[in-house]
Amino acid sequence: MRWIVGLGNPGPAYANTRHNAGFMVIDELARRFNTDVNQNKCKALIGEARVQTEKIALLKPMTFMNLSGESVRSFMDYYKVKLEDMIVIYDDLDTEVGHIRLRYQGSAGGHNGIKSIIQHTGTQTFNRIRMGVSRPKPGVVMADYVLSPFAKAEQAAVRKMIEEACDAVEHALFHSFEQTMAKFNTRAPGNQA
């Protein structure tokens, strides 16, 4: 089973915030795969789908961002799935709005959701799609910024970014993650790795 984990915070107050970019991708994948992400299990909302021969699970951890690893670990243990079959999707301050960046290892880079996943899986090696949210202007409090909605002027870029992340997930179902990185990372020139 392939499993796609979108990071975010539960509840309507956080629905369209920058920190919930991962949830936005899961919602769009659910639409594409014609499934609902509504099973409450493993501290997450889960949806299951089949894409050609692949069985897919879509996860939205309901633990709040800084405890995302609890849900990931619970799902791994319950379903006996492999870490290499997971893709984590999350917001990234060092990538511009509208761009995505794929990686298969690295530190948390200050992201509490990734920090929690590393802590609960014991490794920094897992597939990820980073969604660009850009850095705030000087003087803006980081926590306020990531918990704020995307600006109106950013909406078209955000929509494109979500579509591209979904395309990357679909590509990764039938190609290696290295091949997927080679295809999708070239689309965003000037992004930091």
Describe the structure.
One of its GO terms (molecular function) is hydrolase activity. It is found in: Cytoplasm. The active site is at residue 19. This is Peptidyl-tRNA hydrolase. Belongs to the PTH family. By secondary structure, the chain is of the alpha/beta class. It has a single domain, classed as Rossmann fold, CATH 3.40.50. The protein contains 6 helices and 7 strands; from the N terminus they run βαβββαββαβααα. The chain has helices spanning 21-33, 68-79, 112-121, 142-146, 155-174, 177-184; strands at 2-6, 39-41, 44-51, 54-61, 86-92, 100-105, 125-132. The chain has a 7-stranded mixed β-sheet with strand order 2-3-4-1-5-7-6, with helices on both faces. A hairpin with a 2-residue loop joins strand 2 (39-41) and strand 3. Helix 1 (21-33) packs across helix 5 (155-174). The longest helix is centred in the last third of the chain and has 20 residues, at 155-174. It is globular, with a radius of gyration of 15 Å. The two termini are 28 Å apart. Residues 189-193 have low confidence and may be disordered.
Number of domains: 1
Count all strands and give the number.
7
Question: What percentage of the residues does DSSP assign to strands (E)?
Answer: 15-25%
Architecture per CATH nomenclature, i.e. the level-2 architecture: 3-Layer(aba) Sandwich
Which overall shape is indicated by the principal axes computed on the Cα atoms? Answer: globular
> What class do helices, strands and sheet pairing give?
alpha/beta
Return the average pLDDT rounded to an integer: 94
Order of helices and strands: EHEEEHEEHEHHH
CATH topology: Rossmann fold
Helicity range = 25-40%
Rg over alpha carbons: 15 Å
Helical run tally: 6
Describe the main β-sheet briefly: 7 strands, mixed
In CATH terms, the superfamily is: Peptidyl-tRNA hydrolase
Q: How is the largest sheet built, in terms of strand order?
A: 2-3-4-1-5-7-6
Tell me the distance between the termini.
28 Å
The top-level CATH class is: Alpha Beta
